[in-house]
Amino acid sequence: MIVKVEQLVKRYGDLVALDHFNLDVQAGEVFGLLGPNGSGKTTAINCMLALLKFSMGTVELFGRPMRPDAYDIKRDIGIVMQNVAVFDELTVRENIDYFCGLYVTDRRQRQVLVDEAIAFVGLEDFSRFLPRKLSGGLLRRLNIACGIAHKPKLIFLDEPTVAVDPQSRNNILEGILELNRQGATVIYTSHYMEEVEQICSRIAIMDRGKVIASGTSDELKRMIRTGEKITVELLNPQPGLTESLCNLPAILTADVKDNRLIIKAERQGSALGTVLDYLNTNRIAYGQLYCELPTLNDVFLEITGKQLRDNSN
User: Fold this and answer.
1) Which of 6, 124, 196, 206 is least enclosed by beta carbons within 10 angstroms?
2) b/e for 74-83, b at 16 or more Cβ within 10 A?
3) Residue 144 CB: number of other CB atoms within 10 A?
């Protein structure tokens, strides 16, 4: 077990940020930690890293208690937080060398590690640039390089792809998977459901300071009532259509948005035939019709009652 957190409680006055929070992460996982803003994700990470004191509970990393002075444990940890943390007056290479130097004192060894980190994130052509000369995507890559140059065994990535272009996002995700293939265990937080489905082997959903569901992507999808989602392009929407559909067997919800009928059905069985029969019997003209299985965003919405932004924006 790389990470074991039990009954963690963190309070800010009357506000309970973590409410008996529990987490287990196995060696070799890319573990997704999801939750709406204010759910306690970043607080949980800071407590696991011993950057925050907590009211009760225990944190063990690599099978040992984590404390502020546990420097032997911290040498095996890499941290890439949501806010980019680099020195504006240092070049790309100097930044990576500085952060790597916090863990590796031997200059020759550090030079090799810095070269590898620069190549890993694809910043060879920008090594002498100052951070202010980098695009948002390149700046995120620099931030990652600073956190992983010392070859950590456990890496915390807190929304590393926020506000970057699709190409940079793909490069970052591919880099995370490569770090995992090289032996690193990764704890990954994101609001982007497609990213989480793409790279995470297991996922925990947080809300109000506690884990409310965990498992693989498929396991989480089997926990909710929603099964297939049916989208129908209506040529002439009729009043009362959604109310009538909701009275049909296995239909959970029906809504019309911009002439698109969106139906969510129960997980057991298939509602497509029922919907088609209703549309044809009532001579409701429609164009394209397609079905899709529930997504992680559907899981999140049903379990927490809150919507996360997705990767399509």
Assistant:
1) 124
2) bebbbbbbbe
3) 26
Which tokens belong to 222? Answer: 């089997």
Cα–Cα distance between 277 and 271 in angstroms, integer?
10
Q: Which fold has domain 226-294?
A: Alpha-Beta Plaits (3.30.70)
Residue 22: the pLDDT is 97
- Model pLDDT, residue 312: 39
Coil, helix or strand at residue 267: coil
The residue among 49, 41, 292 whose CA lies nearest residue 154 is 49
Q: Could you tell me the strand order of the sheet in which 260-266 lies?
A: 251-257, 260-266, 226-234, 286-292
Q: Say what the pLDDT of residue 308 is.
A: 56
Q: pTM score, two decimals?
A: 0.85
Please answer whether residues 177 and 186 qualify as being in contact, where contact means their C-beta atoms are separated by less than 8 angstroms: no
CA distances (Å), origin 39, targets 18, 190, 199, 205, 305: 8, 12, 22, 9, 13
Domain-by-domain residue ranges, the chain? Answer: 3-221, 226-294
For the chain, give percent helix, strand, coil, nearest 5: 35, 30, 35
pLDDT-flagged residues of the chain (< 50): 310-313
Task: Report strand pairing: 154-158 vs 185-189.
Answer: parallel
